[in-house]
Amino acid sequence: MSRRKSTTGATDKLGEQKKLRLFVRRVEELGQTSFAQKELELKLRFHWKNDQGLSVQFDQPNEDGLRSFLLGFRQFTLKDEPANMDHIYNLCQRELTDDEAKQYLRECRDGWKEALRKSGFEFVLNGKEISPEYAAHIWINGYYFHNDADLQEALDKLLPPDAALVRYQFLTFVAVTTQYLCCMRDVVIRGLEEGWFGSETRENGSDDPGRHNQ
Fold this sequence. Notes:
The chain is mainly alpha-helical. Helix content is 61%, strand content 7%. The chain has nine helices and four strands. The protein is elongated, with a radius of gyration of 20 Å. The N terminus and C terminus are likely disordered.
């Protein structure tokens, strides 16, 4: 469903401010979940036994808590959602008037990408690289949401230790991306408070976005 474009720049800007405030609110809600507060730290352990071969172990999060968390988390990855992290990043780079804040955001984004490379590991399965981002795509779209038949079949065919490694890559993406979202949230809050998104920010909503979640 398409939306009618605004005839004034001020109205367009107001829409952007609402998206920024919505992004802040959604990140704060995510941070209040039990999964975010207790289960974001991952530790992977490899074990070898001559009679059993290689096994992979790590502490699995509470499944109900993870499902609840993902309901909010997916809003930042779906392209059509107003809180989509790429959309908010691009909006900030376009509208922020403070160059240091824009540079800090770029560093946060670069750090996120680097953390995904370092926190995960190089994992190639049947000639296909299973990055943390791709593993998240498999689990979110093949198991938790959307019920993609091909992705579900790919998960069902995984055998130990491959299944555990794909699961670990998925949770790595979730953990590292959550940290990145918090970094973005801090910049957006500061930008709204300081008026770094233009004069319309102060005139059309000078309330502290963080207060929505007290």
